[in-house]
Amino acid sequence: MQLETPLWKRLVVWAIVVVGLILAAPNLFYSRVETHNDAATAIAKAAKVGGEATPEQTAALSVWPSWAPSALVNLGLDLRGGAHLLAEVKLADVYKQRMDAFWPDARDALKEVRDATGPIKRKPAPDGTLRITLTNPDGMQAALAKLQGLTANVVSLTGAGQKDMEIVADGGDIVITLSDAEKAATDTRTMQQSLEIIRRRVDAAGTREPSIQRQGADRILIEVPGIGSAEELKAIIGTTAKLTFNTVVGQGSDKTANPGVGNLLLPASDHAGLYYTVEEAPVVTGDDLVDAQPSFDQNGRPAVSFRFDTSGARKFGEYTGAHVGEPFAIVLDKQVISAPTIQTAITGGSGIITGNFTVEGSTNLAVLLRAGALPAEMTFLEERTVGPELGQDSIDAGKVAAIAGMVLVGVFMLASYGMFGLFANITLVLSMGIIFGILSMIGGTLTLPGIAGLVLTIGTAVDANVLVYERIREELRHAKTAARAIELGYERATSAIVDANVTTLITSIVLYFFGAGPVRGFAVALFIGIVTSVFTALFVTRLIIQIWFNWRKPKTLIV
Amino acid sequence: MAWRLRLAPEKTNIDFFKHQWITFGGSMLLMVLSFVAWGVMGLNFGIDFKGGTTLRTDSATVIDTGLYRSTLEGLSLGDVAINEVFDPSFRADQHVAAIRISAGKGQDQIDDAGLKRVSDALTAMDPALKIVSVETVGPKVSSELVWSSITALLATSLGILGYIWLRFEWQFALGGVLALLHDVFITVGIFAVFQIKFDLTIVAALLTILGYSINDTVVVFDRLRENLIKYKTMPLKEVMNLSVNETLSRTLATSLTTLIAVGSMLVLGGDVIRGFSFAIFVGIILGTYSSVYVAKNLVLFLGLDRSDKPRATGKGADHEFANIDA
Fold this sequence. Notes:
In chain A, α11 (392-442) crosses α12 and α12 packs antiparallel against α13 (482-514). By secondary structure, chain A is an alpha+beta fold. Chain A is 51% helix and 19% strand. Chain A is built from 14 helices and 19 strands. Chain B folds into two domains: 20-43 and 142-302, Multidrug efflux transporter AcrB transmembrane fold; 52-137, Alpha-Beta Plaits, CATH 3.30.70.
C-alpha cells in the first residue's frame, strides 16, 4: 500500500518551504549582507543629490549579489544598539493655541457687555498671551466678570481648586494668560500625547521595538534599533502633521500680501511662488479623521484616501453642499497641498487628497494622519548612536541557551519517537528557517526575549507532531495496517491541532488589534510561529513520512 | 525492537477527580491568594514601568557594560540599564555611557544620597570617570500602553470564550478561560510574593503562558468531545477521566519539550532573561496542571446537557430534519 498526496499539493508545500528558506538565507551572512545594504542606501542617497558612488561603496555593494534577497531580521536595542534622538517639545506652542482658541469665545462673551465697554479689539501680544483693548475702560469690571465666567477649574491633582486662566486688567487692556497650575497640567498632557503619537508613528506595526521615554520636563528620548535609522526617524517625528481643510479667499504670487484679519497667507507645496489666502478657522481638521490609507487617484498617481468620523463627515458635507463651485484648500503643516474645486456636496464622509506625492510620501502621510497631529512642534537637541544595552556576556549566554535548548529538544524527540522523532526534528529546523524568512520579509526586530520566545516556539512546534504521533500509536494498537494507522493518525489528530491553534491564533489577532507597541510585536511573532509550526507539522512532516514509507514499505510500524 | 522513552505507561487509569477538593479547591484558593498578594504587596516594577534617573558618564577607559552593571547592581538601588553612546564628534579616547537607574518605591527619581553612592561606586571602579549630566526620565511604558494591554487581554479572553463556545459548549468555554486566568494569576502572584522584578519581558512571558494554556486545555477538550460522542451512556466523570488518561502521554511530552527549551534558557541564558524564563517555566507547569485538574472540573460542576439532540459539531444527523429547530 502506498501513501499518496496529489502532485500539485506536494509542489505547493515544497515551494513554500524553499521560498521561506531562501528569504531566511541572508541572515546566515549577516555582516556581509549588512555591509551591502548600507552601501546600497548610501549610493541611493548620493544619487538623489546627483553624486557618484565611491569606489569603497561599490566594493562594499559587491560583497553580496544584488539579485539575491537582502532583507535581514533587525536586532533589537538590547542586542545591537541603534539610533538615539533627544527631541524637545515646544510646550509654549500649546499655550498659544489655547489663547488663540479662547479669543473667539472671549469676543462673543464680551459682546453682551458691549454697552459698557464699547467696541473691543485684540492687540498684538507675545505668544501665549491674549490682550484685549476696551474702547471704554469704564466697562472693565463688567468685562472681567464676564470673562471670569468662562474660566474653569484646573483638572489635576496638584492644581485642584485653581482656575485655568489668569485674567487681569492692565490700564485699558485685559491681559489673559494660562495660570501656572493649568500650564503644568497642560504640559503633562502635551508630553503624554506627544509620547503616544510618536510611538504610533515610529512603531505603527509594533515590530520595531523602539524605546520612547520622557526625559526631564520637556524632552523625549527616542531610541530605535538599527544605526542608519536616524534620518528616517527625524523625518517621521519632525513633522507635526496638522491637517486642515480651509475656505480659500483668494490666490496670488505676492508673498508679502496682507491676508486681512482672520485670514492666512500660505504657500502652495507643489507650485513655487503661488500663495493662497485662506480663512484661518478650518472647516474640518485632521482630528476628525478616523482612517487614512495610501492609494491612487483616477490618473494612477499616488494619493491618500481618508475617512471622517460622523461629526467630521457632517461638517464637511454641509460645507461642501453650500459651496459648490468654490475652491477649498487642503493644508498640511501650513502648506497648501492642493486646492481643488468642490464639484458636488461630499456627504459620504470620505475623500482623497491628491498632490505632488511619491508612493513613499503618500504612505508616510497616511501613517502620520492615522497617528494624529503632534500637539506641539519638536526640535532635535541630540542625535547619537548607542551600543547594545546587554553586555556581550549576556548575548553569548542567550546564544548558548538557544542552541542547547534546540539540541535537547531534538534528543528528546529522537528518544521518544525514534525515526519519527528525526522527521519532526528535520521539520523543526525547516520551520525555524521559515520563521526567520518571514521575519526578514516583514522587517521584524529580534530582542533577547524575542529569541527566548523563538526557543519556546520550538517546544510548542513539536506539539503538533507529538499529537499526531501519539494518535498513530493509538491507532496501531487497534491492529490497523501501518499505512492506515498513519492516515488515521493524521485525520483524527487534525481536529485537536486545528482547534488548539485556531484558539491561539485568535489570541494573537485580538492582541494585535487591541494592543499597542510591544504587545503588538508579540502578537505578530505568535501568529507567524503558529502558522509556520502547524503548516510544517501537518504538511511537511507528512510528506517526509510518505517519502520514507513509500521507499521502505515497512510491514509493521514502531512510532 | 526499538527502545522508546515513555513518559506515561501505554494505558493509564488515574482518577483525576479523586482528591478534587485538594487539587481543584487548592488551585482556586491559590488563585485567590495570588490576587490578594498582588493587591497587598504590589509588583516590583522594573525601569520599563517606572521612571528614574539617567546619568551620562565620560571616561578615557574603554567601557565594559558588564562591569558597570555588576558595580551598580551591588548597590541594591533599583533596576539598571546601561548603553554605550557613540558620536562622530567624540574624541578617540572619549567613552560615553548612558546609565538609567529606576527609582525606589514611591519616588520618581533617585535622591541625593543614592546618587552619591552611585557616583562613588563608579569612580571607585574607574577613577578617570566623570558624571557629565544627571536627569530624570519617565517610564518606557506609558499608562496608555498599560491600559491598551489590559483591554487587549480582556478582548482576548472574550475571543477565546466565543470560539470555544462555538466549537464546543459554553461550559467548556468557561472552563477554558478559568484555566487560563488560573495560570496567569498564579504566575503574577508568585512575582508579587517573591518581589521578582516585573518588566516588559515579563508581560511577553505572561502572553506566552496565555497562548500555551489555551492550547493545552483545548487538546484535552477535543478528546473529551470525541469521547462524549463515542460513549453516550458513560457517566460524564468517567468520560472525562478516560479523555485525560488517553491524552496524558501527549500532555506530558509537550510540556516536557517546552520545559526543556525554557529550562535551558533559565540555566544558561544569563541574568537578563532569568525573570522571563522563570515566568514561562512556572506558567507551563501551571498550564499543564490546569488542563488536567482545573478546566474540566468546572465543566463537571456546571454539568453538560448530554440528551441525544444532534449538534452541528456531531457527525451525521439521524434524519434530514434533525438540524432544524422547531
